[in-house]
Give the backbone structure.
Amino acid sequence: MPRAQRNSTVGFRKSLTWTLAGLLAFSFAPNAFGGKKKKAQAVVPEGEAVANEPAIDIGKLVWPRPPDIARIRWLQQFRGERVAEPVQPVKKKQGWMDRLAGVKQVDEISTVPPHVLVEPYGVAADSKGRIYVADTYVGAIFIFNAESDKVEFIHNGKEVHFEQIIGLAIDEDDRLFVSDSHLRTVFVFDAAHRLVGSFGQESLERPSGIAMDTRNRFLYVADVVKDHIAVFDADSFKLLRTIGGPPAKVGDEDAGTFARPTNVAVDANGNVYVADTLNDRIQIFDADGNFISMFGRAGDGPGAFGRPKGLAVDRDGHIWVADTSMDRVQVFDREGRLAGFFGMHGTLPGQFILPTGIAIDKQNRVLVSEQFKGRVQVFRYITDVEAATEKSGREKNASMTSSPQSSPAGTELKP
């Protein structure tokens, strides 16, 4: 076994990056439902009957559960345009000929049905904090403003012709890259959402997830049919090289080979992470395409995968993986050791049904799309520095409030 692969399977043998006491308890915080506190901010899941879904105190939706220091916090969710308030039908003035002929008058409804997410996949965020979502069914890109109810669109048939959009990536100039699986194309839009180019038709077979390396000016495109990652120049759109490929023999799982790679991510150092979906593993390469390591195996236990797809890397180097079959998100350190996980099958905040896309923006917001539920959930990642500051504050408060007589001489005070 290669050394890199051996190191990536260490599992729980070493201390984890997050040192979470109660790793397996990454679930809903107790008392998050119901609650009698009037000041607690609560939410009822959109589109669900109020009688069937209790109000949820979103201030308590954190992972892991107290008393551990929270590392993930639920913020909000998006499903599309809000449903307008019911309006009274508008009576249209009837002409005298219609009245003479006995034509029955029909009241007109002037409201337009809202546009809602049906099968969202790719997610991304721009420098203004707007959240972009590619919907494979609707064939449009939803653009959400987290500070208001405003929703913008890049429409199919207006700005551009889409067929099956999958992946999204945004560079530092807010240029938007969109992969279309059926058209075998990557579209490029400027910051004003105007189409400025397209490429990939001659080299891509079925593009899926994409990722931008702003440091090296590379755009990575996962091709699920060719079983490789295509690397394009992000400015000239020229194909530079490919990473990986199919195995020499069906069923082989050699390092550097893929079986339906669906998504790709890039870290701050330019390293490339690939969701090798049918092999149920994550493979890591450097910016030159050289294999570094891999981790993962098929299964339903912690650290195992059942069709990993969405992939992202946070500012501390943790690797976030959306597991489509297991309806959860797992977080790993650089060595592929499990740091924590959250989510379960369901429709409430923090639960998932077919999570497929994941992205982390500069505000440390974690965006997770669900194809079956038709929504995007937004979480907040608590960084290592923030967690260390919180821990230090707790220890300081504990030392200030503890009485010297309550601890025998020579005994270390514990927070």
About this structure: The helical segments are 3-8, 96-101, 384-401. The CA atoms of residues 98 and 104 lie 8 Å apart. The first strand starts at residue 42 and ends at 43.
